[in-house]
Design brief:
Length: 241
């Protein structure tokens, strides 16, 4: 009887059976040993994976299918990159022609005409507003506003000195686009500043679209900023000539 008890204790004290590996441990091991299946073709053939249709497929077949899906994704990405490149190329060419036309403008009247024609016909901009600042009355073919009035109406848009895209308040829309404001859903705005000019703040250029998602806060401001920089320098030259 005593021997049976001792034997039972020995069985209880026997080393535990190896614990089963967890899926995460297996996955980590395979990541650390990507060549594990080299020379183990028979093991590869034994492995199967469930297919969406319910049939079992080999690991090699699954790898081939994944590689095909990845190749298709890369192909779609290349198509999108090619489309973006063509779009940017067209935008660059339109911008080049606009800049050349602005540089060739003889006076402010022609400059205003060039901006309106190019934005409307070449860039498809539905609404635009060019406002120049002056503390003194000026007989110019463009809208003139007192600097203090602009600062009160646009506030941080002017003090930041940076172009923005997206939506603004109704009061800001009313000031920028006046009677057209009710039709404007989103805007791109560029303060026209030039450090070598006196005063440095020359005006503001605003582009508008009926589509609330056309100009989004998340989109880049490269186009409107570049146009603002060019226009500021040309305006500084023409206003002070």
């Amino acid at each position: 009887m005593t021997e049976q008890i001792v034997e039972s204790d020995r069985e209880q004290q026997a080393p535990d059976q190896p614990k089963a590996l967890k899926p995460r441990q297996v996955a980590n091991f395979l990541k650390e040993h990507p060549d594990f299946f080299v020379g183990r073709d028979d093991l590869l053939l034994d492995l199967t994976l469930p297919h969406q249709r319910g049939d079992a497929i080999s690991l090699v077949e699954r790898q081939v299918a994944l590689l095909r899906e990845r190749a298709l994704d890369y192909r779609h990405q290349l198509v999108r990159l090619a489309d973006n490149a063509k779009t940017n190329e067209k935008l660059f060419e339109r911008m080049r022609l606009l800049v050349l036309a602005l540089l060739e403008s003889r006076d402010l009247e022609q400059l205003v005409e060039v901006i309106g024609d190019s934005l409307n016909h070449e860039f498809g901009i539905e609404f635009h507003s060019l406002i120049l600042f002056s503390d003194q009355p000026m007989n110019l073919p463009v809208r003139i506003e007192h600097t203090d009035v602009v600062m009160e109406a646009l506030g941080s848009i002017m003090t930041s000195g940076k172009a923005i895209c997206g939506q603004v308040t109704q009061a800001e829309l009313d000031f920028l686009f006046q009677e057209q404001a009710e039709h404007v859903g989103s805007v791109a705005i560029a303060p026209l500043n030039y450090a070598l000019s006196e005063p440095q703040q020359l005006g503001v250029l605003a582009l508008g679209s009926q589509d609330k998602q056309h100009f989004k806060a998340s989109m880049g401001t490269l186009f409107i900023s570049y146009l603002g920089d060019i226009l500021s320098r040309i305006l500084a030259r023409q206003l002070h000539s």
